[in-house]
Amino acid sequence: MHIGAIVGAMLACLCGAALAASGEWLSLGSKHWSPSVFSKSGIGTSNARAEARVTREEIQGWCENWAPGDRGCVQRELSSPEAKATYRASADCTRGRITAVDGETYTLAGRWDNSDIGGGRTRWRDRDGRIVGRDNASGGLGIAQQWEVLCPEGRATTRSAPTGQAPMVQAPAQRAPQPAVAMARSFAVGEVVYARSGPAWVRGRVTHVSQLAGPRGPEIAYGVTLDSGARGVLPPHMLRKAPRQ
């Protein structure tokens, strides 16, 4: 899928406060608001844990994207049991296992290829051994996002083992050379930018850099958290550098 074809979906996923200044959250799915991480422990170990709660700012950003003009949206969402819940995820980073926010445990099954959105991100099997799809309904990329919070690369590295065996730990290895990525403009992690959100340009900050599959190979995309609390992953042409103060 070309990056231009998924811009609308990525904008819909734009949905504040965060753990210190890191802007971390736990994904509940591409059409849901994203609760902010307020507690972490054991990151990158066999007992990694994270807890998250939704904030008013996050719900407000979600309502602005999914229910513009609905004045009752924020209060209605805040009053829901889901908004009052604490979301928890845990993982054994050394064995490639995660208990996601849905309470289910999944086993690492390698990485997705670059034929569609989510290429290069972790792939997971459920307790019945079935691969969890990366489509919105299946939620495989939501599990991958939670794993990235609990087991960031460089802390612990796993590789797939034969069927029936747990993934084995290996030392971080040299990455193979990647195809050249065309970049009309570049942005650094932590840089203040303006991102296109509907008809407006909204101030925010770059949180991470990703690659998406395009017709000519990998294409750069940037994770951005807006000042409104909304979040998403956008291509370079939907970002502008903020003027220097």
Distance between the first and last residues' Cα = 38 Å
Percentage of residues in helical conformation: 10-25%
DSSP helical segment count: 5
Give the percentage of residues in beta strands: 25-35%
The whole-number mean of residue pLDDT values reads: 75
Present the secondary structure layout.
Blueprint: H1 7-12, E1 36-41, E2 48-53, H2 56-66, H3 73-78, H4 81-84, E3 87-92, E4 97-99, E5 105-111, E6 122-125, H5 140-150, E7 158-159, E8 168-169, E9 192-197, E10 200-214, E11 217-226, E12 231-234, E13 239-241
Antiparallel strand pairs: 1-2, 2-3, 3-4, 4-5, 5-6, 7-8, 9-10, 9-13, 10-11, 11-12
Explained architecture:
With about 240 residues, the chain is an alpha+beta fold. The chain has a domain at about 15-170. The chain has helices at about 5-10, 55-65, 75-80, 80-85, 140-150; strands at about 35-40, 50-55, 85-90, 95-100, 105-110, 120-125, 160, 170, 190-195, 200-215, 215-225, 230-235, 240. The strands form 3 sheets. It has a 6-stranded antiparallel sheet with strand order 1-2-3-4-5-6, covered by helices on one side. A 5-stranded antiparallel sheet has the order 12-11-10-9-13. The chain has a two-stranded antiparallel ribbon with strand order 7-8. Strand 7 (about 160) and strand 8 form a beta hairpin. The model is unreliable at about 1-20 and about 155-185 (pLDDT under 50).
Can I get a quick summary?
It is built from 5 helices and 13 strands. With 245 residues, it is α+β, with helices and mostly antiparallel strands.
